[in-house]
Specification:
By secondary structure, the protein is mainly alpha-helical. Helices cover about 55% and strands about 0% of the residues. A hairpin with a 4-residue loop joins strand 2 (about 395-400) and strand 3. It is globular and about 75 Å long. The structure holds zinc ion.
């Protein structure tokens, strides 16, 4: 059942950080204030329409470079300064901080040249797989297998290390693709490797499953978590039909990416956008049927996103959000419009400047956040400056060979880039402190991952006066509006996608009408984000609908929990920070409600919780 999870890891490793979001409020201005803004402002605002976010995942093993001990001090002269001789460690093993909230994970000491795609040669992996196959059965001849207890564990480690290397190169290739999505050569290479890796992963899982079920299974079990063991034990070979469906899905998503990148008018390209989506819906419903589900949403909720709440729970949440959050969202946008909006464009800062300016506050929130932040800067694990070739996405992905995540973003070129950077760092920090075999890594809980990012964004509001001076109010208003937009649109797109998969023959015209109806019900028209006419067409710019359907509800659930933390911080900051740090350490294979309980956070599906959150933050929002 987890096959598709694995597939997604391969295909969407780039977008496994589907973070972002949500309509940035600046777009509202384009629609409604266009006449009143100056040319420079307008140019900047046009740069971005929708941001994807993404993240996730967990971190794996640093293959060749597992070091112990080092300084986690500020990086000083720049990201590449003092690299030579560095050794990184987690505070858990540092005697000065034995009570670290995070588990011990080692990280690579990288070169000053940074990281880049260098290609991957499959031959080594094929040799390892060939060497492993004889261990599926009891050795008939001792000459074939000389010492199983010694050799098999070493071979298994080699397999995990090699697939970490492969997945790291895949992530780096994805980054390269997003840097220049119109480059045919990179795009073709990316598609080719996506296809190849479906087959490679399939072969790895078959070999491991057969070893697990064979006489040497106990040796493999020692290296697996319970979830990994269950996954392998129930793994079924991918059929030719499945491979064909996955490959078809990849090509449709890439077709969408290109259309989006080159689209200047969603209305003009609407027929093509809706046709691609219609084709994707049919492919995905077929995938769900293979795994015994009546519809794709239930399949995705259970098998891809591993949620412990249902589509029915989500439907009840839609109603709460329409009643209590939508009015707050509309009021928050109204407040933003009536502020000195142009001030946000004074903060068109470079990535390095943003990181340097937020650096002093990272440790003030909690000292343990400094370790990963310093690593991020020292080894330049980010690409967050603007470039016209970049696709409009922002995400944090995983480089398991190095034991580190990597942040990619196309900035808005205004103050929101601060909150986006803080958001992505929330993902980076969480990923930095977790490790797992990338081969067996599941998608994990986006609902928790997005609390790790959005919770940090909201805790940072405390420092906005120092960061933005007289502009603090307008920037804060923008940040809060974007968080509320995450809740509103999280429910709206989930409701849209539920309808879409329930009616796979829906015409393009009907899709447009549904999108417009929901935009009205969720307050997007009242908030000025879109108009009644635009709402028919601008929904295609939210790439999650194409790349990772049923993902969006995670923005709503996580943002509500992030607001729950912020609401508590208004009264008791230490307690709120404590809960945030706990959630930042939660492994993403933990389901959402289970994770909330573990950190002392409320279940947002319980009666009255959404209403209470809305009432608590209302005075600060309006
Ligand atoms: Zn995110």
């Amino acid at each position: 059942m987890k096959l598709l999870c694995v597939y997604y890891i391969i295909l969407l490793r780039d977008s496994d950080c589907h973070c972002s979001i949500v309509p940035n409020i600046v777009e509202f201005l384009l629609n409604h204030w266009k006449a009143s803004i100056d040319d420079d402002c307008e140019t900047k605002m046009k740069k971005k329409s929708t941001t994807l976010i993404t993240t996730i995942l967990i971190i794996a093993i640093s293959v060749f470079t597992c070091f112990t001990l080092s300084s986690a001090e500020d990086p000083g002269a720049g990201p590449f300064a003092q690299v030579s001789g560095l050794r990184w460690t987690d505070d858990a093993k540092n005697p000065k901080n034995p009570d670290s909230i995070y588990p011990y994970v080692s990280h690579a000491d990288l070169s000053p040249a940074g990281v880049a795609y260098s290609g991957y040669d499959e031959s080594r992996l094929n040799i390892i797989l060939d060497e492993l196959k004889p261990y599926e059965k009891k050795a008939a001849d001792d000459k074939v297998i000389l010492n199983t207890e010694t050799a098999l564990p070493l071979l298994l480690d080699s397999l995990f290390e090699e697939t970490d290397r492969l997945n790291t190169q895949l992530s780096l290739l994805d980054i390269k693709y997003y840097k220049d999505a119109n480059n045919e050569e990179i795009s073709d290479l990316s598609a080719k490797y996506a296809d190849q890796n479906v087959a490679i992963s399939d072969e790895c899982f078959q070999v491991l499953r057969d070893i697990l079920k064979g006489p040497n299974g106990a040796l493999l079990k020692e290296k697996l978590t319970d979830e990994e063991e269950e996954f392998l034990a129930t793994y079924e070979d991918m059929t030719a039909r499945e491979k064909k469906l996955y490959n078809k899905e990849t090509k449709l998503v890439q077709k969408y990416d290109k259309l989006l990148l080159n689209c200047s008018d969603p209305k003009e390209d609407n027929r093509e956008f809706t046709q691609i989506l219609s084709d994707l819906v049919k492919v995905r419903n077929q995938i769900a049927h293979i795994y015994g589900y009546d519809n794709y949403p239930d399949y995705a909720y259970n098998e891809i996103y591993c949620r412990d709440y249902s589509s029915d729970d989500a439907a009840a949440l839609y109603a709460d959000v329409k009643k209590y959050i939508v009015p707050l969202y509309v009021a928050s946008c109204d407040k933003f419009y009536h502020s000195d909006v142009q001030a946000i464009f004074d903060y068109d800062d470079s990535g390095d400047t943003i990181l340097e300016r937020i650096a002093p506050y990272i440790g003030q929130i909690h000292p343990e956040l400094k370790t990963s932040f310093n690593y991020l800067r020292r080894f330049h694990m980010y690409d967050i400056d603007d470039s016209p070739q970049k696709l409009d996405v922002g995400f944090t992905t995983d480089l398991p060979e190095y034991g580190s995540p990597y942040i990619f973003n196309k900035p808005y070129c205004e103050a929101a880039d601060y909150s986006v950077t803080i958001h992505e760092f929330g993902h980076f920090n969480a990923g930095f402190h977790h490790k797992d075999h990338s081969l067996l890594m599941s998608e994990g809980s986006y609902d928790i991952a997005e609390i790790q990012s959005q919770g940090l964004e909201l805790l940072f509001l405390e420092y906005y006066d120092e960061l933005f001076g007289d502009s603090a109010d307008v920037v804060e208003s923008e940040t809060i509006s974007n968080i509320l937009a995450g809740i509103v649109t999280g429910c709206m797109y989930d409701e849209f996608q539920q309808e879409l998969f329930a009616n796979p023959d829906m015409s393009g015209k009907e899709m447009n009408a549904l999108a417009a109806k929901l935009a009205d019900e969720y307050g997007l028209i009242d908030a000025g984000y879109t108009s009644k006419d635009l709402a028919h067409y601008d929904w295609v710019q939210v790439s999650h609908t194409y790349e990772s359907p049923m993902y969006y509800i995670s923005y709503a659930t996580s943002a509500l929990s992030a607001l729950d933390i912020w609401a508590e911080s208004l009264d008791d900051r230490n307690s709120a920070v404590d809960k945030y740090m706990k959630i930042s350490a939660v492994d993403l294979d933990k389901a959402y409600l289970e994770g909330l309980k573990e950190c002392g956070l409320r279940n947002i599906f319980e009666d009255g919780v959404v209403k209470d959150i809305a009432e608590t933050i209302k005075p600060a929002v309006q």
